[in-house]
Amino acid sequence: MSTTTIGDIVRGDAEVFPPYLYEAYRSTIRRAPTCALVEVPLTLSELTGPGPVISAVTPEDADLTRNAGTGGEAMGQRIIVTGHVLDGSGAPVKNTLVEVWQANAAGRYIHRRDQWPAPLDPNFLGIGRCHTNDKGEYRFLTVMPGAYPWRNHANAWRPSHIHFSLFGNSWASRLVTQMYFAGDPLLPLDPIFNSSPTERARAAMIAAYAHDVTEPEWALGWRWDIVLDGPDATTFEAPRT
Amino acid sequence: MTRLTLTASQTVGPFFHDCLMRTDAACDVLVSDSTEGKRIRVEGRVLDGDRAGVPDAVLEIWQANRHGRYNHPSDERDLPLDPAFTGYGRIATQSDGQFCFTTIKPGAVPFDRRRLQAPHISVAVLGRGLLNHLYTRLYFDDEPLTASDPILQRIPTERRTTLIARRAEGASGREVVYKLDIVLQGANETVFFDIASR
To answer: Looking at the domain assignment, is residue B2 inside a domain?
Structure first.
């Protein structure tokens, strides 16, 4: 990556979270705020949040290979993506909504604005969701997403990734991120991935191949844990006097 | 105590609609017929540093009900919950950056043991080009408590107005309309927050 202008306005842990201005990702240039953020304490408005109020999730929602409603199965390498959602102390974040979206095996989204000449798969919507269980675990069955080109710079390609959206226990724990795959040669070239400022933080966005998750004659396994910001889960379970 | 490395935020990118805005996930009308409270509609635009509308942003909102009670286990106060109101909304901007949602005016909630916060709606802004979502709040220009709100007091006076929705003149019918733009960058840039995480 060549030299890029990196802003100094960051929300949250500045050794983990990207700055709003990261010039190599050009869409940040006119969208990044320029005034310092105002720090606010955790009031009841931030200690609460929408997590517990969202429902209507079915088990089928977590199977992206079959949830298009066509009766057919998506093309591509079948993969299982699973892991724990934790708070900063390592406690599981239970019963929280995890929403995912991704490109198909050829690297194309069904989105109307994605028009690059890769094939669409009629049996793949690329969307899924589930709630974590009592151990904070999530699990999706999907296909390996393809890389795709974008117009950020010459010959720009996004590495394979899955978008993740999580609520966690409070308004302060909201997270939208992307999961990457270990060994992807495009990672060092991707300004979005590299906007996270430290090796440690970037490594934490990469799923590891997990042979113990792999199912024989069926699907390859990948494991990725997610750690949410905000007050620890114990804050919400401690008995009150 | 050792703390785990947090998972970094990344942009929602341009292709989130099919997932985040699917029929039962999007919510720009937070009320049903049985929801308690005064109906309000909030209208505005999300604007970038060139004053162009941002067509691929998402607003998420979180608010208390008309009694000032949050629908969440951490709000243990003895105030009524409204079974017809979650307090959560998710709204995508239109091609010109416009957004609009219908909800109720929230009640005041406590700041600490002594002070109240003015009625407000918490807002998270997500979008292509936003590597991390932005937190802000929406207050109301016709609420007396707005003048003494402890969070607004932390903001330089000249910037407070960027969080205060204006009641539209001549509104009629059941809904009162408030207007507020969210300016990501430049003149009249909206105040955005960093939340102390613990």
So the answer is: no
Whether complex ipTM tops 0.90: yes
Residue B1 falls inside a structural domain: no
Q: Which residues of A202-239 are buried (b: 16+ CB within 10 A; e: fewer)?
A: bebbbbeebeebeeeeebbbbbbbbbbbbbbbebbeee
Is position B6 within any domain? Answer: no
Which residues in chain B have their CB less than 8 angstroms from residue A31's CB? 48-49, 54, 127-130, 184-185
What span, in angstroms and rounded, lies between the C-alpha atoms of A118 and A149? 10
Whether A161 is catalytic is yes
In which domain, by residue range, is B61 found? 17-183
Nearest residue in A to B151, CA atom: A40
Domains annotated for chain A, with CATH where assigned, are: 43-237 (2.60.130.10)
The domain that holds B52 is classified in CATH as 2.60.130.10
3-state secondary structure of B103: strand
* Closest-CA residue of chain B to A40: B195
**How near does any CA of chain A get to the CA of B167, in Å?**
23
Question: Cβ(B54)–Cβ(B47) under 8 Å?
Answer: yes
Whether B189 is in a domain gets the answer no
Contact: A34, B185; criterion CB under 8 Å? yes
Give the integer Cα–Cα distance in Å for B56 and A18. Answer: 20
For residues A9-24, give the mean pLDDT. 97
pLDDT band at residue A232, thresholds of 50, 70 and 90?
confident
